[in-house]
Amino acid sequence: MIDSGATSHLTGSANTADDWYPIVWSILSRYNSPVDARALSASVSPLQWHSRLGHPSLPTLQKILPIDSARLECESCELGKHHRASFPPRVEKRSSSPFTLVHSDIWGPCRFESLRGFRYFITFIDDYSRMTWVYLLKDRSQVPTIITSFYNEIYTQFSVNIRILRTDNALEFVQKVFRTSVIPKGFLHQTSCPYTSQQNGVAERKHRHLLDVARTIMTHMHVPKSYWGDAVLTACYLINRMPSTVLHGDTPYSCLFPDQPLFGIAPRVFGCVCFVHIHSPNLDKLSPRSVKCIFLGYSRTQKGYRCYDPQSRKSFTSADVTFFESTSFYSPQSPVVIPPPSVPLPAPTLSVPPHTEPPTRPLQVYSRRNRSTTTTLIVPPDLPPTAAPGNLLHTNR
Predict the structure, then answer these.
(1) What percent of the chain has pLDDT above 90?
(2) In DSSP terms, which residues pair with 307 in a beta bridge?
(3) SUPFAM superfamilies given for it (predicted)?
(4) Lowest-confidence range among 150-159, 164-173, 247-256?
(5) Is the Cβ–Cβ distance between 132 and 124 less than 8 Å?
(6) Residue 174's CB: how many other CB atoms inside 10 A?
(7) For 110, 252, 263, 354, which has the most beta carbons within 10 A of its beta carbon?
(8) CA angle, corner 291, sides to 290 and 297, nearest 5?
(9) From the CA atom positions of the chain, what is the Rg in Å?
């Protein structure tokens, strides 16, 4: 807002608004369409950006927006990220090239099963770029398969082999199936000493960071705990695109992909109400053209938003989505936990047990009288039956 002196009113200036977001424009300039970038940043407060980008810390947000405040008062951050006082950080030396050293760790089991039945997740952190990959697991026995898949993906995408894999000494990393299927890949496997998690500190801190962000974005929009898997994936997506102190203000994603847009699509508030366009040719003229869903993050293989309809229990990945970012899908008074799609809904139960009903009386059967008139021959005892006249036999009228 500026005061031109011509009137007694303050007048908004578009140029001043653009100057207020210099670093935001540098990020949004990586969009494919500058029109989308301008529409994204128009009339968006710093607190709204704070919610969209996964509730980053104030120093991180100040690298994007010139905020003069010394404290960002966000209740969701206080509820989701509150910790005890920490010790001074220890200075660690980064690797000089990508994938020279990769840190990995397993988290779980979670007390709440996710929508698709996951209870664990495993992380891989490149020591050079701090780029993080997260894979959801249903069982810890999937670890060797996931590590092999990740190793092949890195070799295919970057034409480089992982040299060192550093983990803790969990059973999944030292058992025979791991040594026979993963170790032959050729990398050196380093493990921490028993009960010494500090030796795998990069992965341990990354788990804390992921869970802090996931817990906060779920608390902010009152998202039920059954969506924890989607929240962790969304947290990983946003953390990879936030400035890092270890990288001197650069982002992990930019270290590995310097020529690609930082955000392929505009970031939105996790857990908000969204409307997905229905692409069905069989809709009649009076049917709704969209379905109300909850926004659950971003697709790794498609340029679209991941949305979920709890009523039909269907997931959507679409670019034709509109958002109500200030409206949470679930109410804070009565949050609903949606059961996984693979688990059938329980059958309804009777409100009154059958044995409490009064016993029924036996049915009484009534026969209708025959309207016909019957004449019966009364034979005296002293007369033989052959002496009866013919017109006195049974007659029916």
Answers:
(1) 46
(2) 295, 316
(3) Ribonuclease H-like (SSF53098)
(4) 164-173
(5) yes
(6) 13
(7) 252
(8) 110
(9) 36
pTM of this prediction? 0.69
- Helix 201-220 vs helix 228-239: angle between axes, to the nearest 10 degrees? 120
Phi-psi region of 249 (alpha: psi -120 to 50; beta: other; left: phi over 0): left
E strands, 179-230, are 188-191
CB within 8 Å of 286: residues ≥ 6 apart: none
Place of tokens 């998202």: 223
The alpha helices in 29-142, defined as continuous H runs, are: 34-41, 46-52, 58-62, 75-81
pLDDT tens digits, one per residue of 96-129: 899 999 999 999 999 999 989 999 999 999 999 9
pLDDT at residue 284 tops 50 = yes
**C-alpha span between 170 and 106 (Å, rounded):** 9
Letter for the amino acid at 124? F
Structure tokens at 88: 């001074």
pLDDT band at 25 (very low <50, low <70, confident <90, very high): low
Residue whose structure tokens are 């500190």: 201
Q: Is the dihedral of CA 348, 349, 350, 354 positive or negative?
A: positive
